[in-house]
Amino acid sequence: MVDTLLSVFSYTFMSRALVVGLMVSLCAALLGVCLVLKRYSMIGDGLSHVGFGALSVAMACNVAPLVVSIPVVVLAAFFLLRLSETGKIKGDAAIAMVSSSALAFGVIVTALSGGMNADVQGYMFGSILAMSRSDVVLSLALSFVVLLLFILFYHDIFAVTFDEAFARATGMQVRFCNMLIAFLTAITVVVGMRMMGALLMSSLIIFPALTAMRLFTSFKAVVLCAAVSSMLCFFIGMLLSFFLSIPAGASVVAVSLIVFLLFSLLAKIKA
Q1: Which one of 3, 49, 129, 206 counts the least CB within 10 Å of its CB?
Q2: Are the C-beta atoms of 130 and 123 separated by less than 8 Å?
Q3: CA 6, CA 232: separation in Å to the nearest integer?
């Protein structure tokens, strides 16, 4: 068993994918708890579709994908937050509108620029071969920034997540905290799309939080459980992807679903 695992790590692309993926899984799980509690969990799905549209344009123009997708997805996150705050379009409707439009735009650009090739399919469904050395360095740097900002503003994020009205009444910068959460989510989605794919990236945000909430009720316990389960599911999913030759994103989602069902069963037994 040990020799088999060591053989996996001997491949450079697997080492890169695991290192970046574990960091992204950790960031996504931490943010996912906040987004699920705020009933804004589908923002990950919407932003990943926006990211696909941006990546399609970048590939058509022969520009580095992350250089284009990061600012576009961040702006989209702020735009969705603004729509939700104005109340003219509800959060879920705004996400559905933006995500479907961005996905359609990406498909059109892809069709006009040469059709559905291996690179495009990798971005849609995830590919462990997509990570270059420069991608790894940039992805790790961004993941560390996300993790650091989450830790620094943990108490503010906690307050805004549970009672936004009370936080505003106490003088807390609620708008800044919401923008921070949106910014961190956008960065995490863009980085994670390289392996999970645009269509499956939201699973890294939703599944860990829902899984942890089956057994735990306190915010801290849910966050810790979500972080551990997310990283574990990603690790197992990547190994299955390698040995079974299946898309990485689909493999991780399948493992996450199994773990969620197990936690749900344990919750029923415990009750």
Answers
A1: 3
A2: yes
A3: 17
